[in-house]
Amino acid sequence: MFGGIGGTAGLYSRALQRLFNTIRGPMVVAPEFSAQVDLFGRPELWGLHGGELMMGLLDGLVAGGAGNRSQVAIVNPLGSKEIAIIEQIWFMHTAVEVLYHAISQTPLTNTTGNLVTRDTRRVTTTGGSMPSGVIIKTQNNAALANVASLVGKTITPANAMSIVFPDFVLGPGWSYRLYPTADNVAIASQITFIVRARPATDDEIIGL
């Protein structure tokens, strides 16, 4: 039986009630049955606890001139009450391209728009945008700066798709950046981000 758990944590109790269709009454499972479910597993269950499944495309970014670095990032903005998980990043280009991966606490300046839903039950606009504050940002008019740490490097083969699985968790105020290895070089690849986000408890945001 599920009681009244309050706050953000109550979403998970509510999720189980939704899953087993017991919102209008207590959930009672007979002793001979054992209900086993992973609310963070299958994608159709993600929305039960307020989670959001998202994806977004960057169709390249032009070079910004001498001394400037072209960059793209997934940003979970400061003050967000969500955690975001970057599950996959798809790369496609007609030529070989090398990109660094890094994390930062300084967001880039240009917003490409909201990520698009991977769950049409959560659509908020005719274009399929999500209500989440997690967005794609770009910049190509400044030198590379404010990088906390390099975390990876990918080489996209010519005329092929390359997929990486960061499984990277972004807390509020953090960004996951991609950029070329040199200044005044375009991001030529088509890059698709596969992202999840969900409400977080205070303990998840400030540290366990």
Helix content: under 10%
How many distinct beta strands? 12
Topology order in helix (H) and strand (E) letters = HEEEEEEEEEEEEH
Figure out the total of helices. 2
Q: Averaging pLDDT over every residue, what do you get?
A: 84
Separation of termini?
27 Å
Q: What gross morphology would you assign?
A: globular
Main sheet attributes: strand count, strand direction, barrel closure: 6 strands, antiparallel
| Structural classification | mainly beta
Taking Cα atoms only, what radius of gyration do you get, to the nearest Å? 20 Å
| Low-pLDDT runs | 1-5
Domain tally: 2
Residue share in β-strands:
35-45%
Characterise this structure.
- It contains 2 helices and 12 strands.
- It has 208 residues and is mainly beta.
- It has 2 domains: 10-37, no CATH class; 52-206, no CATH class.
- The strands form 2 sheets. Strands 1, 3, 6, 9, 10 and 12 form a 6-stranded antiparallel sheet that branches. Strands 5-7-2-11-4-8 form a 6-stranded antiparallel sheet, with no helix packed on it.
- The protein is globular and about 60 Å long.
- The two termini are 27 Å apart.
- The model is unreliable at 1-5 (pLDDT under 50).
